[in-house]
Amino acid sequence: MPVSGVPLQEADAHGAALFQPYKVRGVVARNRVVIAPMQQYSAVDGHAADWHVVHLGRFALGGAGIVFVESTAVEARGRNAHGDTGLWKDSQIEPLRRVAKVLKDNGAVPAIQLGHTGRKGALQPPWGGHSHLNKDDAARGEGAWPVVGPSALPVGEGWQVPAALGTDEVKALVQAWGDAAHRAAQAGFEMLEVHGAHGYLIHQFLSPISNARTDEYGGSVENRHRFALEVAEAVRSRWPAHLPLFWRISLADLDHELSMDELVSLLRALKLRGVDVVDCSSGGGISNYPTDGPRVPRGLEFRAGDGQKIKAMTGMDVMAVGLIIDPQHAEAILNADQADLIAIGREALFNPNWAVHAQISLGANKDYELWPRQHSSYLAKRAGLADPLRNTVLQRDASRMLSSTPRVAA
After folding, report:
1. Hey, is 317 helix, strand or coil?
2. CA–CA gap between residue 33 and residue 20 (Å, rounded)
């Protein structure tokens, strides 16, 4: 049975809520700061590279409690772009094991997200235009691949028409999710998230906008939920029982927003199948990509009220993500019981030390214990801990770092 997160009221009352430990199933994170999955477009044939080790390792050094690897494809067709990481074959395990070990060795829980883009796949990386792969890309050896979806309905004009998955193909994909989860465990990850949002394949099955099937995977709400629930069962069966399972949902789907009742019904069914934590993403529609394109307002942020409803109506823990920039904002969300974990995305790219700076800003720093020990003794001497003026200066510097950030979505 799942073990829920440690309630904040039972935690150490002398520290900030953001820096209380978090326990779920058999895993304990040192605090509630999470680095969200962010695509890096730097893998080779799905294999993680040195970039991933350095990029992700710095967040562990920066004090985060949990660090997620980017959405990792369960099959080659499920990539967003050529540079996505993957776990569709065994040779991809070892490069990711390096990443997991660096995170673990430096105090963070190693976590990974598994995904499949479905009809939204075969794109250029952002620095290449972030549009559909074209003949110029093919000339460079990065041509498009055929994409798939629940139905032969493209995202929009100019997009590939996806091949509608046959019933047997759907079941094979369910198995691919389970196989990828098993490989993630072999690689040493201790938390796993299924990407069920942002208009990607699972979300495509959930929405009547993209799912026009008439078989057991389409039509009624029950049938549209079937693929997601079978994926949850397959992943949970191949993912160790003592390790937690997260599920990402979209709270703001601009084309077809699932009603709260339907969303809660899905989440309750997922909970019965062993999902522990709901990752409440703030955006990502069925028929638009990228999510910060012209059809999506840039003001999307974590819907605290919805997160609180989901916690109350499902009994599941919630991870908040979306325009959470200030430590005080994060602290307020936790203290109001609107979420159990705070995920930081692009903010962490601007400041990989967000967690340790937040701890100083919130007045919860204790002799720099969250910093790497190779750094902490130097910093303690620098601070002049017996000199209140120096401490005031340090808090001011940390606040300036956190407040000077461009206000962009996580």
Report:
1. strand
2. 10
pTM here?
A: 0.91
Q: Which of 41, 200, 217, 368 is catalytic?
A: 200
Question: 229 Cβ partners below 8 Å, 6+ apart?
Answer: 269, 270, 273
Strand stretches in 6-138, DSSP E: 22-24, 27-29, 33-35, 66-73, 109-115
Among the listed residues 24, 21, 32, the one whose alpha carbon sits nearest the alpha carbon of residue 2: 24
Between CA 35 and CA 174 the distance in angstroms is 27
Residue 384, both tokens: 């002049």
Contact criterion met (CB below 8 Å) for 64 and 348:
yes
Instruction: For residue range 21-75, list pLDDT tens digits in order.
Output: 999 999 999 999 999 999 999 999 999 999 999 999 999 999 999 999 999 999 9
In the block, tokens 């069920």 appear at 196
Confidence band, pLDDT 50/70/90 cuts, at residue 398 = confident
Residue 200 annotated among the catalytic residues of the structure: yes
Element (H, E) at 399: helix 388-403
